[in-house]
Amino acid sequence: MICDVAIIGAGVVSAQTALQLVRRGMRVTVIDMAEPGSEQAASFGNAGWLSSHSVLPPASPGVWKQIPKWLMDPLGPLTVRFPYAIQATPWLLNYLRAADSFDKLRETARVLRSLIKDGPALHEAVAQEVGAHDLIDAHSGLVHAFPDKSHYDNAPFGWKVRRELGIALEELDAQALHAKVPHLSDAYRFGVFMPEAGHCKSPGQYVQRIFEHLHAHGLQFVRARALGIQRQGGGTVTVKTTQGDVACAHVVVAAGVWSKALAASVGDRLPLESERGYHVMLPGTDLKGPAIPLMLEDRKVVINQMTDGVRCAGQVEIAGVDAAPNWRRADILRRHLLESFPRLAGASGDAPATSVWLGHRPSTYDGIPVIGPSPRCAQVFYACGHGHVGLVGSARTGQLVAQGIAGETPAIDMQPFSIRRFQ
Ligand SMILES: Cc1cc2nc3c(=O)[nH]c(=O)nc-3n(C[C@H](O)[C@H](O)[C@H](O)COP(=O)(O)OP(=O)(O)OC[C@H]3O[C@@H](n4cnc5c(N)ncnc54)[C@H](O)[C@@H]3O)c2cc1C
Q: Which among 317, 93, 308 is positioned nearest to 204, based on CA atoms?
């Protein structure tokens, strides 16, 4: 098979990239061992936040002091499984090092902001184009809920950086918080409303819809596992797959956390680690009303009313890609959900979860995605490593990759996203 561009992976980053390439009249083939929008992809089960203010990585100066407490807490947001921890140690140390000064974090925030600033608006435009307007609400805003104002005052740096970047936010006293999020437990007495952000009501369906649109516009889909990338003479590259070779002028590596092995086949070092996360869904509709998704800051979970139920997502588990899920993590999320929305506990507390899910955030240790060409082979482009912001960041990423392949001027400075920083 011969095409202009082969994209490895069919998650949301691939979907957005393919859309941009097809718009430019290119013949695009997407390769994935599973159907677009299915469960193995991080893009399926995420929390659906289009949070253009998610500019800070989870690590911060001094965070290591909290790690022992989190690791000891069975309800805590972070777990590192042994013996995998030994293998992950270099990545974990780099992760802490990349966030060991406020200057470094400020710079990361500036770079991430350039990528995700217009996320809600870009997704709204895509949703209009592909007929998914019912799945994207770019104007809902998002809420961060705190037990009280002192929790917010004790974490000043992130909020200060957001203000420095010009991100609007509104502080909510208890009354204003509960007016925005009815049924939230009285244990939450303070909130911050982010008016510029939005959300997706079904991330998996969103990916499916984009691909349905693309199929109707000539996209080819090859259901196969990509095994590696080989340079050929005459300006072509070949993707070796379990179903044969796909020859093309350009390859985009958009295989989420699995991109690491594909980069190695080109000779590029791509230090990705899975920050495993979980979700649980209950059928209740009790949370409807203002339909504003929220993050419980003390529990580090996001709660979002989806098209088919209430989703609670979060947790970071470092255990590698292949380890079996620990469904106790999903039980913990269920507990957080029911404790923070007691009325939901009354309505659906005994109902079986409609979905429990484990997904792999494809995370670089510096919290910045990898977007742009390979230094070893200019025909290979990376579009991966989006960690916690892959949904919101995917629309701009797709545009940047397409601009690079088409030889257009990129919409933002691409240098901070280059894979060269790891070579
Ligand atoms: C619990 C949780 C909550 C999250 N919440 C949010 C949120 O609210 N907002 C946000 O912006 N982000 C969020 N994220 C992050 C976001 O989901 C990811 O960053 C994003 O989905 C990554 O998309 P991707 O397309 O790069 O990778 P994926 O969605 O993982 O897709 C990769 C695809 O590549 C395929 N593939 C892998 N290897 C091969 C191969 N060798 N050959 C062919 N195909 C291959 C896989 O089958 C898969 O379909 C969350 C993540 C988690 C886990």
A: 308
Does residue 29 contact residue 1 with C-beta atoms inside 8 Å? yes
| SS3 call for 277 | strand
Name the least confident of 19-23, 152-156, 192-196, 222-226: 152-156
Architecture of the domain delimited by 2-43+205-272+366-422: 3-Layer(bba) Sandwich (3.50)
Do 2-43+205-272+366-422 and 56-114+135-196+273-363 agree at the fold level?
Answer: no
Q: What percent of the chain clears pLDDT 90, i.e. is strictly above it?
A: 82
pLDDT band at residue 246 using 50, 70 and 90 as cut-offs = very high
Q: Which of 78, 103, 75, 74 is nearest to 92 (CA)?
A: 78
Residue to mutate, 31, 32, 242, ligand 1, most ligand atoms under 8 Å from C-beta: 32
Give the whole-angstrom CA distance, residue 79 versus residue 220.
40
Nearest in space to 48 (alpha carbons), one of 353, 257, 313: 313
**What lines the ligand 1 site, CB under 6 Å?**
8-14, 31-34, 40-43, 46-49, 225-226, 254-256, 258, 277, 279, 302, 313, 359, 361-362, 384, 386-392
pLDDT in the model for residue 284:
64
The CATH class that applies to domain 56-114+135-196+273-363 reads alpha beta
CA angle 40, 41, 46 (to 5 degrees): 115
Domain ranges of the chain: 2-43+205-272+366-422, 56-114+135-196+273-363
Cβ-contact 44, 37 below 8 angstroms = yes
The strand pairing partners of 240, in sequence order, are 228, 245
Find the mean pLDDT for residues 149-156: 90
258 closest CA partner among 401, 385, 391? 385
CB atoms within 10 A of CB 234: 5
The size of the chain, in residues, is: 423
What pLDDT, in 10s, does the model give residues 344-385?
A: 877 666 778 899 999 999 999 999 999 999 999 999 999 999
